[in-house]
Amino acid sequence: MSSGRLLSSSLLLADVTLTYPDGAGRLTALDGVGLDVPGGTLTAVVGPSGSGKSSLLAVAATLVTPDRGRVVVDGVETAALSRAEKAELRRRRLGIVFQQPNLLASLTASEQLELMAHVDGRRRRGAAGRVRERARELLAAVGLAGEAGRRPHQLSGGQRQRVGIARALMNGPAVLLVDEPTSALDHERGAAVLELLAGLTRERGTATVLVTHDRAGLAVADRVVGMVDGRLGAGAGAA
Ligand SMILES: Nc1ncnc2c1ncn2[C@@H]1O[C@H](COP(=O)(O)OP(=O)(O)OP(=O)(O)O)[C@@H](O)[C@H]1O
Prior knowledge:
Layout: E1 11-22, E2 25-37, E3 41-46, H1 53-60, E4 68-73, E5 76-77, H2 83-93, E6 94-97, H3 109-120, H4 127-141, H5 157-168, E7 175-179, H6 187-204, E8 207-211, H7 215-220, E9 223-228, E10 231-234
Parallel strand pairs: 3-8, 3-9, 6-7, 7-8
Antiparallel strand pairs: 1-2, 1-4, 4-5, 9-10
Helix pairs in contact: 3-4, 3-5, 4-5, 5-6
Bound molecules: adenosine-5'-triphosphate.
């Protein structure tokens, strides 16, 4: 094991501060944030608009570099990585689920997932068949075994979000970052998507961070943290 790796947690943020330019000064979006999410657990982050939730996800995703602090993804310290190394880390160890799944209109559900594996670029002999098999397995895991051949316009909003979740899991990520996955869904479909995320987190051992306003999200979480003015605190019931 190289010295840059830690085994204790799959996502660790320590004393993370992020500021943005704001006129003549700086706006503090994250203020000394610490978060430790072990594999196989789901942490829900709740908080008012502008409190820093999206910034937290962007930093955890290595899309934005904080002014200060550590971001450790699956044991890898990210501070010293080049842009290319961060991109590879994202492809191999991070899964991201967005508010809208942004599926490609011309591809079937299975092809949306297969594309992820090809972008990942790990090609082996016979890989295409295995990639297809994995896509089918994941679509079955999100309850879409019968929909693998359907294109986005033939799927409901909830089904499209499930495709987005399966796609995020395609490369076997250690860390799953989820941003308001139920905002476009009715209560019942939203609750089902959140239950699914919690189940997949335990089954696949991902360290999952879920930003949500949805009370059903709090119910499925192992831990709820509240975000106020860029700071994290215990947040059970804070939504
Ligand atoms: N690219 C940026 N440049 C400047 N300021 C930004 C930028 N992104 C976010 N901010 C500011 O940082 C603060 C935190 O924003 P962030 O989007 O992380 O909050 P949020 O909790 O996700 O909000 P919402 O729930 O509305 O999505 C806000 O004051 C916001 O205006």
